[in-house]
């Protein structure tokens, strides 16, 4: 680092380039921070207004010796209580977000399942250590119609009460919601999935994570080399979980293998398939375009809803992707981090 710094200062031209680079970096950072602060301020103001209105309504009801007004009789934003799994016997359990799962025999399949969630078109994609409750709520407020949880490690979720409490939170208004797990053992996955089933609409299995941690743990996109395990994971949840199972996958280099893989995922029991149009090796999204043509062919071949993921950085690009692929919905991940209103129509921010 020191030697690089010395070389950069050898000439006036180098110093100029170095200054320009830092000016651009600083400006981009300022824009990102300013945008996040604007969203935070708007969110805080809305929440404060809602809580103040609710408090005034309760005070008025108490003064009139009447029952407090319900959400259906007021125009204020409903403030839901947050559910977290208890870390100890002393922790309060908020039951507001609990919904009795439909059960193995009664759970819906394919498009019936998709339509029961309102046929959501704009999805907050699952991300490692991102897409938490507060972020999902912010995105929903600006156009997103379904949220995924952050990627949850099935074994840790089953074994650690502390991990369960830290990784997952939701509210009664956080629907539709898909809880995503990474796993390679059907026995572990089914136990973890059953715990979370009452607090989500479906459980998604991550077959798309290309990061090194997924390679070390043998999950995510690294199960693309182990089709029997992929099939076993999906089939176990389809047969035993009281809510539907979905899957998020990536494409292969060739179309034939990609279609065979997608059809296997569907046949195993996935009731919705989200497709990232990049291969496992194409980790840097800025360097590789998503293969919308492969997603289009998957959509044409499968009988369950198909979601498209990749190269959706604005509302206009979301519409272009839907038109090009024929997909039933769109996922966006990192672009939402810099613009949580990406799915708003009309755009909350002008496109870059």
Describe the protein:
The protein is of the alpha/beta class and 352 residues long. 45% of the residues lie in helices and 12% in strands. It has 13 helices and eleven strands. An eight-stranded parallel beta barrel has the order 2-3-6-7-8-9-10-11, surrounded by six helices. Helix 9 (227-240) runs parallel beside helix 10 (255-268). The longest helix is centred in the first third of the chain and has 52 residues, at 12-63. The chain is globular, with a radius of gyration of 23 Å. The two termini are 34 Å apart. The relative contact order is 0.10. Mean pLDDT is 84; it is low at 2-29, 50-55 and 61-75.
Shape: globular
Gyration radius (Cα, Å) is 23 Å
Strand order of the largest sheet: 2-3-6-7-8-9-10-11
Major pleated sheet: 8 strands, parallel, barrel
Structural class: alpha/beta
End-to-end separation = 34 Å
Q: Beta-sheet strand percentage? A: 5-15%
Number of contiguous helices: 13
| Total strand segments | 11
Q: Uncertain segments of ≥5 residues (pLDDT<50)?
A: 2-29, 50-55, 61-75
Average residue-wise pLDDT: 84
Please write the string of helix (H) and strand (E) elements.
Answer: HHEHEHEEHHEEHEHHEHEHEHEH
What percent of the residues sit in helical stretches (DSSP H or I)? 40-55%
